[in-house]
Write a structure and sequence with these properties.
Length: 417
Amino acid sequence: MSKIILSVNAGSSSVKISVYSASQGQEPKELAETQIDGLTAPPLQLKYTRGSQSICKGKNLEEKISSQNDAFKYMLEQLIADKEFEAINRKEDIAIVCHRVVHGGDYEMPQVINEDTYHHLEALTDLAPLHNASALEIVKYLIKEMPETKNVAVFDSEFHQSIPEHIRTYPINQEIAKKNKLRKYGFHGISYSFIARSVAQFLGKKTSEASLIILHLGSGASACAVKNGKSWDTSMGLTPLAGLPGATRSGSVDPSLVFHYATNVGKLSPSSTESLHISRAEEILNKESGWKALTGTTNFGTIASSSSSPEMKLAFDIFVDRILGYIGSYYVSLHGKVDALVFAGGIGEKSDLLRKRVTDEASCLGFEIDGELNNRKIEDVVQEVGKKEAKHRTLVCQTNEQFEMARLVSVNGKLFG
C-alpha cells in the first residue's frame, strides 16, 4: 500500500517541502515540491511545482512569515488548498513526515521521533544551534497539530558514523571529549549518501566498491572522502563550521583567531534565546564571515564572474585553495584509489569556471577537464565533465536530499510501517 511522505528541509533562510508517494521497499515517486526562500533576506519568494508542471516560480509573498515553522505551515495549507493536487486533501492524508536534522550525535540511522528522541535532539541543539532548532520547531508543531502523522528524523551526520576513530578524534583530554561528545561528526551526509549511490550506479559498480572524492559546494560547503561506499573522512567537524569557507562561514581558522578579533566573543550573542545559546564567537564565524565578509555578496555566481575585482578574485582563489587542500589530503588518504572526483551542490553543479579551475590545479593527480563537456548544461543526475583518457573520472552529480530522505524511510520497514 502506498503512503504519502513529506520530506522537509528547513535551512537557515529557506524551507523546502517535497511530496512523495511510496510503497515499502520501493523508491519514492515525487508528486510535488514547494519552497519559500528569503526568510533572512526578504522579499519572501515561493516556488511550487506539481509533477512536471511549474505552478509558480519566484512569486513574492506579502504574508507575514517570520520563521521556518511559519513557512512550513503556509506551504502545507497551500498544498491542501490546491484542488488540482489530489494526493493531499487534508492533513490526515500525510502518513510520514521526514525531517532533515543536521546534528544527530551518535545516531547511525533515521529515528522515529517520540518524546525521548525529541528531547535527545533538543540536547544536541547547542552543537548545531543555527540548524537543529528550526527543524525541531516544525516537529513540535506537527506532533501537536497532526498526532496521527509519523515524524522521522533523518540526520546529516549519520552517513559519517563510519569515519575511523583516529580520524574523528580530536587530540584533547579524552575524558572531557567523551563526556561532552566532542569529536568530528561531519554533515551534508544525506547528500553524500545520495551521491555515493548514484555515482556508483553511473560507474556500473556496487556502492560498496566505489571510492570517491566528493565536493558538496553551496553556500555551505564541504568535502568528503568515500572509501568503498562509506565515509572515510569529511571536512566539517564537531559543527558545520569547520572545513571549507561558505557564504557567511569562515571555515577552518586558527582557533585563537576569534579571541584576537573582538573582546566579547565568549559572551552570549544578543540573538540568543532561553533555549538557544549562541556565543558571539559562533555568530561571527558562522554569520559574519565567508564570501560576504570578503566581497559584500553571498552570491558565488557574482564572485566567479567578477574576476576583475580584487575582492572577488581573492574570494574565488581562497575557495579554490581550500578545496585543493582537501582533494590532496583525501587522495593520499585513499592511497590514490579514486574512481572519480565529483562536484555537487548548487555551486558544484552551476559553476563550470570553478570546476575547470579546481580540476586544472589538481591535474597532477590525474584529473582532467573536458572543455566541451564541462560547458554543457548539467541535466542528468550524474554527468561526465572529465576527459575520456584521463587517469581518473571527473563528474557532476545533481544531489537530491529530499529524495534520499524519503528513500531511506521507504526502504526501512521499521520506519515505514
